[in-house]
Amino acid sequence: MTRYVAFLRGINVGGHHKVPMAELRKVLEGVGFCDVKTLLASGNVMFEAEKQSANALSRKIEDTLEKKFGFQIGTIVLTGSGLEKMVKSEPFKGIKVGPQTRLYSTFLSAKPKSNLKVPYASADRSFRILDVTSTAVFSVLDLSKTQTTDAMQIVEKEFGKNVTTRNWNTVLKMVGH
After folding, report:
1. Distance between CA 105 and CA 173 in Å, rounded?
2. Which residue of 19, 75, 78, 147 sits 20 to 30 Å from the alpha carbon of 9, by its own alpha carbon?
3. pTM of the shown model
4. What's the pLDDT tens digit per position in 34-59?
């Protein structure tokens, strides 16, 4: 069995696309996944399954959840070891974090085709993209420099809508589980 993590896009946000975590765990166990755990209610899942491609697992989860909940839920799957490797790479090394600083990892469903020059900074330097890999975009948002930002619109414009973003603290907690 291989350890995987799945990031579900757009569930339990603003009262839309409600997916109870206990029910999500039960559904995923029903398709043969083992040791299914969730973190927070925003669609962070850890599980074990027979070794297979991340794309095959994503499709299986998406199809299963659409049948169960009646709406599409974009899903991005990584191996647990891949997520650990991402964390060990320290993508935010050297970033001074204060109360107004947010560190984000945007997970990609496919290798990026963006021509964005990285590192990237918005005009007011409130939003920066530090690095882009084949599976993620690492960005920093400084709320002390702006009260509104188009950060996620910038990410979606450059990397497509089939992405999902997590606070880096959530990613660290997933590796710790």
Report:
1. 13
2. 147
3. 0.93
4. 999 999 988 999 999 999 999 999 99
